[in-house]
Amino acid sequence: MNRDEAKNILLLYRHGTADADDPQIAAALALAERDTELKDWLVMHCARQFVLREKFRQITAPAGLKEQIISEQLASERRILMRQKIQFAAAAAIILLFGALVVFWFPHRADDDTLDIYQNQMAGVALRGYAMDVVTNDPAVIRAYLAQHDAPADFILPEKLKQVSLAGCAVEGWQGVKVSMICFRSSQAAPDVSSDIWLFVVDRTSLKKSSAGPAPQFSKVNRLMTATWIQGDKLYFLGTTGDEQTIQQYL
């Protein structure tokens, strides 16, 4: 199986479902673990799926649709035929809506460099498991490693976050640029957890359509509570489990 064949197979893959049990998909996923380019493509593909699912969840069903369906179950054959026509029209509308989302939603994001996709990709890194490039609580070692690998190293930590124990760091990728991932371990972390707070730092110019500003913006991204802000020429994305009150204690 080559990279292009794996991509065609993984187009049908839905993260977090039983799809991974399919032999062909499992083989393609295994190849993605060994192929960095394919792995980056897969992460972006899953991020797009997540954004689409979130948008569909925000669509409100027409008022009275449930009652209409129930009443039509008791109608005559003529009403049943009419209901089928209505359902067909609704299905066609959904297909058109899906097409509209693809055509109008993604093109407004210059080459997928928007904040929501970036947040979902970085949150996915933290949640799906990762290996730190350097395991240390020494900030000087972390900054030196990031600088040596051309990742942002001149980041500024919030004063409260400076009081949390460092765990290490890693260098991640985003649209061809380097992202610094700084890992922390809070006092509430389980004994078998290496880190439970993650800070991602990237040059702000790499997200051309970002709505972030100097004040932290709080949002739930996947299973993480996150805060995003801009300081200087960097965009900061902080994530941890819990609620807004939990993350505010690190800002």
Task: Describe the protein's architecture and organization.
- The chain has 251 residues and is an alpha+beta fold.
- It folds into 3 domains: 55 residues, no CATH class; 41 residues; 139 residues, no CATH class.
- It contains 8 helices and 7 strands.
- A 7-stranded antiparallel β-sheet has the order 1-2-3-4-7-6-5.
- The longest helix has 29 residues.
- About 3% of the residues have low confidence.
Tell how many strands the DSSP assignment holds: 7
Q: What count of helical segments does DSSP give?
A: 8
What is the H-and-E element order?
Answer: HHHHHHEHEEEEEEH
Cα-to-Cα separation, first versus last residue: 47 Å
Beta-strand residue percentage: 15-25%
Low-confidence stretches: 106-112
Q: Strand count, sense and closure of the main sheet?
A: 7 strands, antiparallel
Mean pLDDT, rounded to whole units?
83
Helix content: 40-55%
Structural class: alpha+beta
CA-atom Rg in angstroms? 22 Å
User: Could you say how many structural domains there are in total?
Assistant: 3
Net shape: elongated
Main sheet strand line-up? 1-2-3-4-7-6-5
What's a quick, concise take on this entry?
The chain has 251 residues and is of the alpha+beta class.
List key phrases describing it.
251 residues, alpha+beta, 3 domains, 8 helices, elongated
Which SSEs are present, and which pair or pack?
Blueprint lengths: L2 H8 L12 H12 L1 H22 L7 H8 L4 H29 L9 H13 L6 E2 L3 H10 L16 E10 L2 E9 L11 E7 L13 E5 L2 E8 L2 E7 L3 H5 L3
Antiparallel strand pairs: 1-2, 2-3, 3-4, 4-7, 5-6, 6-7
